[in-house]
Amino acid sequence: MAELTNQAVLERLQSKFGAFISDVEEPYGLLTITTTRDQIIPMLEFLHADQDLQMNFLTTMCGIHYPSNKDKELGLIYHVHSLVHNVRLRIKIFFPISDPVVPTATGLYAAANWMEREAFDFYGIKFEGHPNLIRILNVEDMDYHPMLRHYPLEDGTREDKVDLFFGR
Amino acid sequence: MAEIKKAAEVKHPANPVHGSLQVADSFNNELTTLNLGPTHPATHGIFQNILQMDGEKIVSGVPTIGYIHRAFEKIAERRPFYQITPLTDRMNYCSAPINNMGWWMTVEKLLGVKTPKRADYIRVIAMELARIADHLICNSILGVDTGAFTGFLYVFQEREKIYEIYEEICGSRLTTNMGRIGGMERDLSPAAIAKLRTFLKDFPKVWAEFETMFNRNRIFMDRTQNVGPITAERALNYGFTGPNLRAAGVDYDVRVMNPYSSYQDFEFDIPVGSNGDTYDRFMVRNEEVWQSLRIINQALDNLPEGPFHADAPEYYLPAKQQVYRNMEALIYHFKIVMGEIEAPVGEVYHSVEGGNGELGFYLISDGGRTPYRLHFRRPCYIYYQAYPEMVVGTSLSDAIVILSSMNVIAGELDA
Predict the structure, then answer these.
(1) Is A28's CB within 8 Å of B109's CB?
(2) What pLDDT sits at residue A38?
(3) How many Cβ contacts (< 8 angstroms) between chains A and B?
(4) What is the pTM of this model?
């Protein structure tokens, strides 16, 4: 069996999802691509089913918030892993904070259940079709999503903690 | 959340081992709601399971977690790299050195720091000791939950000795905060080596005795074999890693798949199970302890000469004596303590084989003094989701045993 390279993975994906793949990078050897939220589930399904790639292990997924990226404030980052070929792939999707709805991956990965609940809890990302989308780590009556960047860690009214020299 | 239903109305999922449940003739045709936890002696941590019971059989289970959620990912966004290690200590507190080293390696990958061999070997020794401590607790607690208390008290003395070795390596015991960017904070002292040698001489006898007590014990086998099995396919779908996945027969081990910290220098085996049941998980952990001992022996015998940290003064906290006498050291000390080390813009994922699975760190740096985003892949957070599926159809006493054998650590679950 020939060794699977990042280049081969990318070519395989581009032959299928060519127009939907952007921002191809390789930071520290890990192939990273960006796609759209409509394509994320078909892409995960393709990676899962494809006999050459066999990327059928969802290592982790997490949300992210970039307040200054207009209409792409929120994001989700999936890490999938082909245990057979030992190749990892990082897939990112970005979408506006005003419309934080993403299709769920729970149909494909049972592991995605709590990961998505965590992303909902932290960032308020709503997963369409999730069987039980409620908060997981924070209390149920919390009325905000604490990992969004506009919630500071420290009490905003305190002035003795302002650090003019070193910033955050 | 918990409501009483007529037993006849509840749809019973088929369990691969126990088959579908026969419930029609239960008392009053009603289900009982049982709160297992949050503070129950058998959960070994603060988390809750709301079980629907039909007599002694479990019909459904709903886990509730987050009781010790401390928002580490949020806190990490305000902390320089050196101040994040204490957070990692408090995730899987049974094997804190692995978490520490995983974090240092992630930062080193981002900064491009290459560690010398001696530092790698000392790290391997610390990590394998942590693995022994972790498996030792998990397996002996499993014994307690099946009614055998003696083994637990017996091997816990050995954990104390491991903690004494930690003390010699880094000065602390449970939350170790061990190591630095680029290596270790100090070299292995003669006292540490002496304690390691004594441990390596004495511990195998203790562990062999522990195994004699359990491995072929009829009662223990009856309590654990075919209890809570999971197939390899389901385990992969649930994102299992570590001993729990290997017990199901998948030989995925990060130490072999993506060697870090010079693991490729050592010879060791990866034990795998076949049924993925409680007994297999127990046996895989038992064998991994022997393999860890093998690795420590090799690391100690072949400990390379040379520096115990990388020559990276801008990242490696200088020795205190130097800070008082040397201008550069003083400047670097100040900059590092104030978190003013220069980090490149980039993102890096690094994972290590933790006590209970692939412990991953996903770090996004925007060039500032703190991470822009830091996500921890906590193995037990991911595999604990499978618990309801594994306990449905079993009895309450089995559910306790399954929980113990999964090695769920509340600190890591909630982060």
Answers:
(1) yes
(2) 93
(3) 96
(4) 0.91
pLDDT average, residue stretch B171-177:
92
Tens-digit pLDDT profile for residues A58-109: 999 999 999 999 999 999 999 999 999 999 999 999 999 999 999 999 999 9
**Burial (Cβ within 10 Å: 0-12, 13-18, ≥19) of residue A106:** buried
ipTM of the complex: 0.92
Question: Domain containing A53 — which CATH number?
Answer: 3.30.460.80
Structural domain containing residue B51? 32-61
Q: Are B47 and B83 found together in one domain?
A: no
Which of A24, A28, A78 to probe the B interface (max B CBs under 10 A)?
A28
The model's pLDDT over B26-67, given as tens digits with 9 standing for 90+, comes to: 556 688 899 987 887 777 778 888 999 988 899 999 999 999
Cβ pair B406, B380 in contact under 8 A: yes
Q: CATH code at B298?
A: 1.10.645.10
Q: How far is B75 from chain A (nearest CA, A)?
A: 7
Q: Give me the pLDDT at residue A164, please.
A: 66
Q: Do B66 and B93 sit in the same domain of this protein?
A: yes
Instruction: Say if residue B57 is in the same domain as residue B114.
Output: no
Residue of A62, A65, A141 to mutate, interface with B, max B Cβ within 10 Å: A62
Q: How far, in whole angstroms, is CA B201 from its chain's centroid?
A: 25
H/E element holding B181? none
User: Residue A67: phi, psi to the nearest 5?
Assistant: -60, -25
Selecting from A109, A146, A166 the residue whose C-beta is nearest the C-beta of B339 gives: A166
B42 plus B130 within the same structural domain: no
Which range marks the domain in which residue A84 is found?
6-153
Identify the residue with better confidence: B233 or B14: B233
- Quick check: B370 and A32 CB within 8 A? no
